[in-house]
Design brief:
Elements: H1 8-16, H2 18-29, H3 42-65, E1 69-71, H4 77-90, E2 94-96, E3 100-101, E4 106-107, E5 111-119, E6 122-131, H5 139-156, E7 162-166, E8 172-176, H6 181-195, H7 215-225, H8 236-244, H9 250-255, H10 266-285, E9 290-292, E10 313-320, E11 328-336, E12 342-347, H11 351-371, E13 377-379, H12 383-395, H13 399-407, E14 411-413, H14 414-421, E15 422-424, H15 431-434, H16 449-461, H17 473-503, H18 517-531, H19 533-538, H20 542-549, H21 551-567, H22 571-575, E16 581-592, E17 598-603, E18 619-621, E19 624-635, E20 640-645, E21 653-658, H23 665-681, H24 686-692, H25 714-723, E22 729-733, H26 740-753, E23 758-761, H27 765-782, E24 788-791, E25 805-808, E26 821-824, H28 826-829, E27 838-843, H29 851-857, E28 861-868, H30 889-894, E29 905-907, E30 910-911, H31 916-926, E31 932-933, E32 941-943, E33 955-961, H32 971-985, E34 988-990, E35 996-998, E36 1004-1007, H33 1011-1021, E37 1026-1028, H34 1030-1033, E38 1038-1044, H35 1056-1060, H36 1063-1070, E39 1073-1082, H37 1093-1111
Length: 1112
């Protein structure tokens, strides 16, 4: 008998909108209380009907492919469960509408599909196959699938780790259940806990961010209590800071005599205080109120609103984030006033159509701008510009035109203009929210962009052969909605110009940056290549090589975009920008540094978090981007900085903006030569062609399928394989602590002994020098003759004092005939002096070296050896690149594979660092169980002085703390770490030799995601501890690693959940530990929140880590 009747659909709804489910529960238990729900959208019901039709189509398709299909007839739950189990016992291929239960949940998945495996029924089992109308997987589907899979395990005695979803476009997507299962269990536990509470209280809407069918009720409650959540752009962490200061409502904030609250910037506090005052005034007068911000910076806000041009465009995109792997921008609308107010729109219902529409829109704007360079494109918010930038990079098209429009400031963000100029008393700055200020309320149209998505989904589920607003009533609704949005922008601009004139905020034209002629001319060639389909078929690498030629230019674009964006921000905004240093105030101190440069001393808020550091050179002044600034001296604790410049004077108040662009001319020149050779005669170096095709490396001998088994040990296998490489490539994947530098040095010297000339490259001189040092050390041990060259324009490493080293400042100065091994960056090996000079090029940290740089360096060598690990930190690409042309060379080769296939290279299998209890987690969750800990690692343990806080002598320990409202730092975690450190420093450790020694400060690494937490830890623990972000410690190790997560909430954390729970960063952080890894985090991070499949998978890994730490 079924003990309970919860359904997977109930659980799915709880995951999406817990407030709605809890409200239903409360009202069921309190039937005398009447709270009205919002009306259910009839379009959602329509989508539900279309979902059933899709399910029937899938059934028909599967019935044609499979021999035996059974439909379970509707009946009582017990009858359906018995019938389903009987069908499973008989081994049918497919069960439609089968009923399953685990005595807690009861559900009817669309299909149960027979697959190979084992179960109570024999040598087969069933997996879940569900039909969903959407065109991409939603996170709630995965909750439902996992619930079905758990019930299926109860029914058949085994659990399939696979499931499938057939999406609305009839594609079948495979699901690995265990990628999401721990996340699901957390959701289920929370749901059952809430459903079985004995004391059911009315839920507080202020504790939730989504209210479902009780949104109107929640908004009424917020108005009743004057809740701070009504203020525009306020975050949960900021509300918590106000509460901590005793400010618990809008009226209290408006009337407070305070001028700031702890841990909140004074400008931010004043902004919310002004908003509160205007909010109250709006409520009193029952008319939306506003006031002009009188201290608006020149060049911003209304100062940045240009004069009217007859060719101006008012632009808005309708987008469906639920449609494809990326958002589908399905309607591009533009209003204009050539003769009267008019409107044009472009529909795009597929990737191909979106590309065409993007090109047509950009061409149209570009031509109008050529006709009148003073015209502008007005939009509301950054979404439209982000979409244009993204599509330009994704498709690799219209780069010249978009570059021109951006460099000439053609696009004007009206949301920025409004927010920088006006304090408005409403609940937000959305276009619909502020329209009462300047236009009559809308009628007979959709109320929001969210509504348009629902309507579009309803149309997309059954287009009935329609494609635009002329033949579809649903699309016509969206068309009218978008048209009103665009016309609204005209009205808004006209209204803002009236205010601009009344307050004399005259237009201040922003600086323009000259177009890049190089990218313009090459883009024309690339467009010509890509339009010639026959050519692309004959020469399949042409498109990739063409895109790689533009890689560095595309990498530079976001630097300029960020510069433009930051120039449109206030100095106060830049204070909160981690990459900038904002609101510097001159002290009057000036010193002569050189005959041409001076130093100007400034103060800044010592609480400001910034990455700007001593020696930084690529800095621009927000107030004058033509000046180049470097950091001559800085004391963050005192809030003092000395700026070095050739200018005779600087502004009294200024902000610094990074703008680092390094010329990659030698690299791009080599790639262009490779492209031209391929274009003209179709030839490529074998090592490049093998690599681009991802084919098995070519050898002079037959080595079989497993390249790690060519000898009795891994290093000898590497020496044999690489030594017999036949102008090809090879990969050495080195997971944490597996000795990739040790192995690489021995392989390199085996080649040197054969008379081969070897290059060593990487992104950083530090990585190159580490490998060179290992090579020289092994040369000395084995008495191998030979000199080692290094190209570096600085003599700043002790390695350079070694008698084997020949140091040259430039590539052309390196005497290649005198050296056996030479180290340098991509700029070295792409230099024409190095062309065809090497037998082998070893690229270390290949997971961080771009594919473009590798191709550029290939001009120097016959064989390429990649050493690295793409599962550790990557060198993040700044630009958007089409067709994988922005990948690292290792990521390109392995695609989504976590480990190198045995016939393409060798994975180093033994870690000499991690205790087996740490290695077990890293190996099983990251490296497909292909690495193991050597036996002596387990001798290394910590003998704890006491076990009040720390409970383990080795392995992974998790410590949960209760804190909320923290984004980049947590004093709660700092205080706990101080306790842990005290315990550790009074403890002993056993090393791999069995020796018992004291735990010292140098035996502890403290790792955290955020620089703010690094600083807080350093201030409280002292500068003599090893404290830093994950990036600082790659390649490092210590007996104990403490990981401080710092943020209270993954979704609101800086850079988001995907950064905080990034598997590569977690891998690096944990795998630094030799004996003990201690993870400290807020218990709030354990709550299963995720808005998409990827975030759910990342959170699942974090929860898996916590479970492993608790159980191991």
């Amino acid at each position: 008998m079924i003990k309970h009747s919860h359904s997977p659909s109930d659980l799915m709804r709880y995951f999406i909108v817990p407030f709605e489910v809890l409200m239903h529960q409360y009202l069921e238990k309190n039937s005398d209380i009447n709270i009205e729900m919002d009306p259910v959208d009839s379009l959602l019901e329509l989508i539900g009907e279309k979902g059933i039709e899709h399910e029937q189509r899938v059934l028909k398709e599967l019935s044609l492919k499979l021999k035996k299909v059974i439909k379970i007839e509707h009946g009582t739950r017990e009858e359906m469960i018995i019938a389903t189990k009987s069908a499973m016992k008989s081994g049918v291929d497919l069960i439609y509408q089968g009923a399953i239960t685990n005595n807690i949940f009861f559900g009817v998945p669309d299909f149960l599909l027979r697959v190979d495996g084992s179960s109570d029924f024999g040598n087969y089992q069933y997996k879940i196959l569900d039909a969903k109308l959407a065109k991409r997987i939603k996170s709630e589907y995965l909750i439902q699938i996992c619930c079905y899979s758990e019930m299926l395990k109860f029914t058949q005695g085994s659990m399939s780790n696979e499931a499938q979803i057939c999406l609305g476009d009839n594609t079948f997507k495979d699901i690995n259940i265990f990628d999401f299962y721990i996340f699901y269990l957390k959701v289920k536990d929370l749901y059952l806990e809430d459903m079985h509470r004995s004391n059911i209280e009315l839920p507080d809407p202020g504790s939730f961010s989504n209210w479902g069918l009780f949104t109107n009720y929640a908004e009424r409650k917020f108005i009743e209590v004057n809740h701070l959540i009504q203020l525009p752009d306020i975050r949960e962490s900021q509300i918590q800071k106000f509460y901590a200061a005793g400010i618990t409502s809008i009226d209290k904030l408006a009337s407070t005599s305070m001028n700031r609250v702890p841990e909140m910037d004074a400008h931010v506090f004043q902004k919310f205080k002004n908003q509160s005052r205007m909010h109250i005034k709006t409520l009193e007068l029952n008319v939306l109120q506003y006031e002009v911000i009188d201290d608006c910076e020149v060049g911003l806000g209304l100062y940045s609103l240009p004069p009217k041009s007859k060719l101006d465009i008012y632009f808005d995109i309708e987008s469906n984030p639920l449609s494809l792997e990326r958002p589908l921008h399905y309607l591009w609308g533009a209003a204009f006033e050539d003769s009267c107010k008019d409107f044009i729109g472009w529909w795009a219902h597929s990737e191909l159509e979106m590309k065409i529409v993007f090109e047509e829109f950009i061409d149209w704007v570009y031509l109008r701008n050529k006709e009148d360079p003073l015209m502008h494109v007005y939009h509301y918010g950054q979404f439209e510009i982000s979409a244009i930038r993204s599509l330009m990079g994704l498709y690799g098209t219209r780069e010249k035109e978009v570059d021109h429009l951006l460099r000439n400031n053609v696009f004007v963000d009206l949301l920025r203009v409004v927010k920088q100029s006006l304090c408005i008393g409403g609940s937000g700055y959305g276009l619909k929210k502020i329209e009462p200020l300047y236009m009559v309320n809308r009628v007979d149209e959709l109320s929001s962009g969210g509504d348009s998505i629902v309507v579009y989904e309803a149309w997309a589920s059954d287009p009935k052969g329609t494609s635009n607003h002329n033949d579809s009533s649903l699309l016509n609704e969206i068309w009218k909605y978008n048209r009103v949005d665009c016309i609204s922008l005209i009205e808004l601009v006209d209204w803002l110009r009236v205010i601009q004139e009344s307050v004399s905020f005259h237009y201040f034209a922003p600086p323009k940056i000259a177009n890049d002629p190089e990218i313009s001319s090459f883009q024309d060639d690339l467009d010509r290549f890509q339009d010639d389909k026959d050519l692309m078929l004959k020469k399949p690498h042409l498109k990739m090589l063409s895109n790689l030629c533009l890689f560095h230019k595309r990498e530079d674009k976001p630097v300029w975009w960020m510069l433009f964006d930051r120039l449109e921000k206030t100095d106060a905004d830049l204070v909160n920008d981690l990459d900038c240093l904002g609101e510097l105030v001159a002290t009057g101190g000036v010193e002569q540094i050189t005959t041409r440069s001076k130093g100007f001393t400034y103060t800044f808020d010592s609480n400001q978090e910034s990455k700007v550091k001593l020696g930084d050179k690529a800095l621009k002044l927000k107030q004058d981007i033509n000046l180049n600034i470097s950091i001559y001296d800085i004391n963050p604790a005192e809030g003092l900085v000395t700026l070095k410049t050739t200018a005779n004077e600087l502004p009294s108040i200024l902000s610094l903006i990074p703008c680092s662009v390094i010329s990659a001319k030698p690299i791009s020149t080599r790639i262009e030569e490779i492209l031209n050779g391929y274009f003209n005669d179709g030839t490529l170096k074998s090592c490049v062609e093998h690599f681009l095709l991802r084919q098995r490396p070519s050898f002079t001998l037959d080595h079989g399928k497993d390249l790690s088994k060519l000898a009795d040990n891994t290093i000898d296998s590497l020496i044999i394989a690489i030594g017999s490489l036949d102008e090809s490539y090879f990969c050495i994947q080195g997971p944490p602590g597996t000795g990739k530098t040790y192995s690489g040095a021995r392989v390199i010297n085996s080649l040197v002994e054969k008379g081969m000339k070897v290059g060593i490259a990487s992104n950083s001189h530090k990585a190159i020098n580490n490998m060179l040092e290992a090579v020289i050390s092994h040369m000395d041990e084995e008495k191998i003759t030979g000199l080692v060259g290094k190209v570096h324009n600085k003599n700043d490493d002790l390695l350079y004092e070694n008698e084997r080293i020949l140091l040259s400042k430039t590539p052309k100065d390196m005497p290649l005939s005198d050296v056996s091994v030479v180290g340098g960056t991509a700029w070295t090996f792409s230099n024409e002096h190095f062309q065809d000079s090497l037998d082998y090029l070893f690229i270390d940290e290949a997971g961080q070296v771009s594919l473009a740089n590798m191709i550029g360096m290939s001009s120097s060598c016959k064989n390429i050896i990649l050493i690295g690990d793409q599962m550790q930190l990557a060198n993040p690409s700044r630009g958007i690149h089409p067709d994988n042309s922005g990948s690292s060379c290792l990521s390109y080769l392995l695609e989504d594979k976590p480990t190198i296939p045995a016939d393409q290279g060798v994975l180093l299998p033994d870690t000499f660092r991690m205790h087996s209890s740490i290695c077990k987690f890293i190996s099983s969750r990251v490296y497909e169980n292909r690495i193991k800990s050597i036996e002596s690692n387990d001798k290394r343990i910590i003998e704890l002085a006491d076990n009040k806080i720390l409970k383990k002598s080795f392995g992974i320990q998790y410590i949960a703390l209760d804190h909320s409202g923290n984004e980049q730092s947590s004093m709660e975690e700092v205080l706990k770490i101080k306790e842990i450190v005290r315990t550790l420093l009074s403890s002993k450790r056993i090393n791999s030799h069995g020796e018992r020694v004291d735990v010292e400060k140098g035996d502890i690494l403290i790792v955290t995601p955020y620089n703010h937490q690094v600083r807080l830890l350093s201030d409280n623990l002292g500068a003599d501890f090893n404290i830093g972000t994950v990036d600082k410690f790659q390649g490092r190790e210590a007996p104990v690693v403490i990981i401080s997560m710092a943020s209270s909430n993954a979704l609101s954390s800086p850079r988001g959940l995907s950064f905080l729970f990034d598997p590569n960063r977690l891998n690096v952080a944990i795998s630094r530990a030799q004996s003990l890894a201690i993870l400290i985090g807020s218990s709030e991070l354990e709550k299963p929140f995720a808005s998409n499949e990827r975030d759910m998978k990342l959170t699942n890994l974090y929860l898996d880590l916590i479970d492993y730490a608790s159980l191991s």
